[in-house]
Write a sequence for this structure.
């Protein structure tokens, strides 16, 4: 299961801990002379950080999950401002926009020159401009991943810009930044974070480093997910989830993901489903389908052992079975109020098309077992 031959890359510097977002101005001081700072729509939340920046800075706000067009507009703003460093204070949407812009500043051109699947897929060969990422959700782990996800409404799909050169220079992970997340954001981003620990843990590209990170991330999800949702002010739970997100991000950047993200990327490009909610609705059906396929095939052993270990970590019970782990995931989704995909307008009639597109996604290549079109369609019908 675990590959003995592997490569591993992560952010140049990770600064983690409650209150440490206050170090952003000092971190930025050494990285450039003019900054473009990306934030979400609630700019006022970050007034004190923005006011303390030690270099000329302009702000670009990102409303919603980024499209190719948003990345283009961000790059144009960065060039107009003559920015040589970028910062992102926000969720995965804000961080991905900043990472895409940092890459375009370093490499030139348009997002479509480099996008996987729907673009020319040109190799990114030059370093991105320095990027400092301060996540406010927990999360996507985008502060330490090598990709930026952009939606293309025209193609009805989300696709990634990807290169180790896109990993942010500095990740500043402060759980206090996530305390203001309302319960639906905590639920969606938290279940995404959990999935991003589980998928690399069972991935065909798992390696000894990502294994350790994913295990700790799953432990943190078990400790923090339900508690952070029940009481957003529980800083210990928020810290567990910030770690779960960070560890999952490092793991996925180095071991790939699986069918949950393969399907979620297509759904997010087709309908207005927040990414984390798509992952949350798909998680249990995908685990169930993977386990079934692994049990009926010749090479299921190691991946099934991984699912059993994940079940023990999530439930905290040394004798837990895969079925117990699945029950924990289903119960957590119910407690966190995860809606079915139909709530967002995804219809059973879309399932065949989504399954066909997802089969070609890069995430699908990490799945521990190859799922047929009919198996992917059945997963979708359950999640819808
Ligand atoms: N690059 C990667 O490795 C990677 C991995 C997973 C997902 N993604 C992408 O990240 C995006 C999703 O990111 P996300 O789940 O972090 O959600 P998000 O960034 O879209 O934010 C969700 C909502 O929460 C709000 N929000 C964020 N922080 C808040 C806070 N502290 N308090 C109150 N509200 C807050 C935002 O304004 C937004 O309305 C998707 O586009 C997805 O494709 C990227």
């Amino acid at each position: 299961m675990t590959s003995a031959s592997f490569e591993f890359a992560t952010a140049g510097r990770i600064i983690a801990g409650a209150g440490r977002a206050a170090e952003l101005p000092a971190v930025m001081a050494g990285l450039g002379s003019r900054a473009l700072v990306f934030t979400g729509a609630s700019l006022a939340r970050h007034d004190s950080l923005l006011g303390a920046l030690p270099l000329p800075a302009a702000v670009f706000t990102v409303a919603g999950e980024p499209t190719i067009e948003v990345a283009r507009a961000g790059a144009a703003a960065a060039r107009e401002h003559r920015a040589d460093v970028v910062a992102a204070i926000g969720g995965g949407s804000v961080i991905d926009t900043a990472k895409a812009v940092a890459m375009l500043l370093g490499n030139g051109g348009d997002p479509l020159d480099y996008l996987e699947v729907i673009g020319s897929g040109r190799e990114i060969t030059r370093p991105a401009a320095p990027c400092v990422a301060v996540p406010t959700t927990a999360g996507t782990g985008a502060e330490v991943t090598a990709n930026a996800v952009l939606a293309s409404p025209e193609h009805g799909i989300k696709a990634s810009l990807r290169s180790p050169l896109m990993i942010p220079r500095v990740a500043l992970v402060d759980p206090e930044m996530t305390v203001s997340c309302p319960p639906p954001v905590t639920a969606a981003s938290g279940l995404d974070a959990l999935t991003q620990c589980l998928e690399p843990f069972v991935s065909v590209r798992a390696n000894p480093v990502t294994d350790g990170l994913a295990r700790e991330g799953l432990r943190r999800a078990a400790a923090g997910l339900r508690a952070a949702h029940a009481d957003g002010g529980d800083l210990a739970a928020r810290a567990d989830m910030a770690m779960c997100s960070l560890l999952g991000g490092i793991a996925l950047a180095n071991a790939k993901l699986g069918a949950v993200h393969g399907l979620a990327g297509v759904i997010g490009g087709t309908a207005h489903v927040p990414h984390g909610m798509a992952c949350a609705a798909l998680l249990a059906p995908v685990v169930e389908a993977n386990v079934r396929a692994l049990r009926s095939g010749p090479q299921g052993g190691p991946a099934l052992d991984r699912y059993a270990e994940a079940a023990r970590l999530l439930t905290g019970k040394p004798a837990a079975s895969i079925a117990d782990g699945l029950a924990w995931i289903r119960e957590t989704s119910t407690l966190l109020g995860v809606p079915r995909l139909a709530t967002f307008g995804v219809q059973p009639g879309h399932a065949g098309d989504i399954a066909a597109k997802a089969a070609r996604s890069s995430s699908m290549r990490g799945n521990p077992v190859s799922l047929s079109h009919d198996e992917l369609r059945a997963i979708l019908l359950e999640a819808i």
Residues 40-41, 65, 90-94, 96, 136-137, 139-142, 145, 147-149, 158, 177-178, 180-181, 185, 188-189, 192, 268, 275-276 surround nicotinamide-adenine-dinucleotide (CB under 6 Å). The first strand starts at residue 13 and ends at 16. Residues 13-177 form a domain with the Rossmann fold fold (CATH 3.40.50.1970). The chain has 14 helices and eight strands.
